[in-house]
Structure formats: structure tokens, C-alpha cells
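Researcher: We're teaching a course module on how sequence relates to structure. For the next exercise, students receive a sequence and then see the predicted structure as C-alpha cells, so they can try to spot secondary structure elements on their own. Here is the exercise chain.
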Amino acid sequence: MKRSISLLLAALLLASVSCGDSGTASGSDTTAADTTTAAPVDTSRLGELGEQDFGGKTFTILDANDYPDMHINMPGDEMNGDIINDALFERDGKIEDLFNVDIKYEQITNATNGINTLRSSELAGDGIYNLCISTVCGGRLATLATEGILANLCAIPNLTLDANWWSRLMYENCRLGDKMYFTTGDISPTVYQTPGCIYLNQKLLVDYQIDTDFYQLVRDGKWTVDELLNVTRDAAIDVNQDGAMKVGDDFFGMIYLTNAVTSSIMLVGCGESLLANDGQNLSVALNSERLADVVEKIREVSEPVSYSKQSTVFDLTFKVDKAIAGVNCVEIAITDLRDMESDYLVLPMPKFDEAQEGYRSMLNGWADCFVAVPKGAEAEFTGFITEALAYESYASVRPKVYDLVLKQKGARDEGSAEMLDIIFNTTYLDFMGIYEFASLPTGMANVLFKDRPLASTLASYQTKAETAIASFVENWIQE
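Model: And here is the predicted structure for the students to work with:
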């Protein structure tokens, strides 16, 4: 049996439900009953949008993409047997036929070049593009949002940004002054690769006689950092006894990368943010007692780790049974672990405690999966087709992409599919994760992974962060 997680999930059927009425009409005693069956009523989001004929109007999507071979957001010109290509091809064909629209793409490799093209087009008043898919970080969509180039998604008709096919937690945390300029969701298959998660090596769980039902812990809301500690505590072994825990030499309870992305994945999973958003303003949030408790708990589970090359950390540890657990993104199930011999589980990041409201799966702002509407796009038409594409992706593309992302040669594991749905339904990103005001997330990584003192370290960032935030808010809440 290969990795229990990597199987699967063509079994997850999220197709929309249709229902039909049948009725009879009666007249006088001598009139036969009318047995005509009424047409099925489409109760899906597409049905809610209603019938529209756009007369063959073109809907143009700009894919400003750093890694188009891995981050696939557009189909080719025909079906070719590739799971993502064919799923997107069928999605687009369905929407084109339903609403008489012509969906076209322009892909520009190197996201910065693509973003520059979009900026130039908008400043020239060309109105070429209806939608852009790109990264938010690195001077991409996040920069355009503060330059007045992007439309306020909250003001675009037909978009239901808190629905399952969009990131509900981004809607809650990336709105300010009732304005939101980018989001993500099923409309981009790349979103399935980027959430943070926990991997558990099943072979090592057996070797260490750990028989916990982790799926049930997650279902019951009891998957916490303490439960993770029960797996990893005292498991690390300095194999060569050189006094340092080095990747490639030693055995780890939990492996991770000592960077700002990982620190954010862990903090967010525990329900914490370094930023407070009251809907109208932002402020740094560094002094709560809960944050201090979370930091201590993460430090406890994060054993020291030393490595020289970030890209090989999981290859030299988790993949070869030299780490019981690992923190990373879903993407490595494709890039690093596809040929791993041992089975493994993928779980959402653990909560801080059972009292925490729910799981949260941090997104990587460098992934080519975020969408924005240029200010010059026709709002009603763009909102309608964008919503239709997003919903149809959720209903028909997501199950097929699961089969690629988590495909294995062994038996089907429905539990893994369920865990992935929890991860994908709790994707999270906030302004701190995108803009990293005054490099505050890097400071937090130093606190968590390099044992820097919490209070004094964060205090050293506070004034600069507050200044950066004030400038950002002024630019975001633009008229």
C-alpha cells in the first residue's frame, strides 16, 4: 500500500444537486390528468445566477504565472488526457455553452512581467482583461491593490466571496473599509497546492506503536498541538552524537523549514495573527497573553534543526523515514513525496487547544492562485462569469484535481479525502502574511526557531510596523 494520502479522492463528489418537480393539472371530471413532468430545476449556484445569453462576448483571463508547468490555471486548446487540463477544458466549455460566452486566456510567464502588462493596459484604458490570476506577494497583485489598478471585489455584482468556492477566511481577513481587491478559491487549481499542513509518517507511527485515530481527532475538533507533541516528544535522536541536529545525519520528531512562511503556518494554525483587523483599521497585535502561550507551545514542538539547503530538507528526512512529522504545504505531496516508499497522512495544522473555534490553513502568497479584477473591466459581466467559473470549479474540477494531487497506487483512503476537504475549506491569508509589514513575520520566526526573546524582539519591530501599516491603510482605502 502506497501513501494513504496520495490516492484518491475522485470519490469526493461535489457535483451540484438538481431536483425536479412533477405535477398534475386537473380540470373537470371528464378531463384526463396531465402527466407531463416539469423540467428539472437547477438549484446550484449556476441555477441561482439564472439564464443569460452574452451573445458570444469575450471573457479574457490573464495568467501572470511564475511556474506555468506546475501552477496550471488554464487549459490547452484541446483535451489531452491531463487531469487538470481536461477538467479546466470541460469547465470552460460548460460555462461557454450555458451563457454564450467566449473564454480566452493570455499567459505571461514571469508574474512580474504579466502584472506590468496588466498595469499598462489599465493605465492606457484598454479594458482588455476581465480577470487576472497571479501571486499576491513579490510586487504583484498586492502592489496593484494599493495603486488603484484593481476593482473592489465587494462592489462587483454576483460574487459571493464567503461561499465555499471562495476563501471564506480571506474574505474575513483581507477586507478593509469594505474593500477587497484580491482573493482565491477553486477557480484556480493551484490553490490546492499551497495550504500549510502536517504530514505524519505511517510507518514510523507503527514502529513507535502510536495507534491514535488522527482522522477522528480532527473530526472531533481535538487535533491540537498537545496531540502533536504526544507523537513527537522525545523522539529526536542525535544519531552521530555531534551535539547538533542536522538534516541528513539525525532523526527528528518533527521536521520543518526555519523561515517566516513556516512560522506563519504554525501561528495561523493556532488561531493567532500578528495583526488585528476591526474592518476599518489595522493594528499590530503583539502583546496578548494567548500569543505568548502559543509561542511557548510552538517552541516546545519545534525541535532544533540545522540544514544547508532548504529544497532537500524533506527528501533527507521525512521521505526516508527520518522524521515522524513534518510541516509544509500540500504541494510537496506532488513535488517531493510522490515516490516515497512509506505511507503517510496529511492533516490540517493542529489547533492550539480544543477551545479554538476551528482549523486554519495558511496560504502561501507566492503561489500563482490569487485572482483580481482590473478596475476597467465591465463589472456585471465579469462578476457573473467569474462566479460561474468559480462555482463550476468547486463542483467539477476539485474532485478531479484531488485525483492528481493525491494519487496513489494502493487502496482508496476516504479519510485522507476528508482531511483535504477540511484543509481546502479553511484556507487563510491576512494582510500581515501578504505585506509582511516591517518584516515582522521574520522577527517571529526568530522568536520561534532561534529562541529570541518574545517581548523585546517584537517590540523592536513595533514602531516600524505601525508606520508601514498606517501608510498601507491610507492607500488601500482609496476612493
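Model: If you want an answer key for the exercise: Residues 196-364+429-476 form a domain with the D-Maltodextrin-Binding Protein; domain 2 fold (CATH 3.40.190.10). Residues 379-405 form the longest helix (27 residues).
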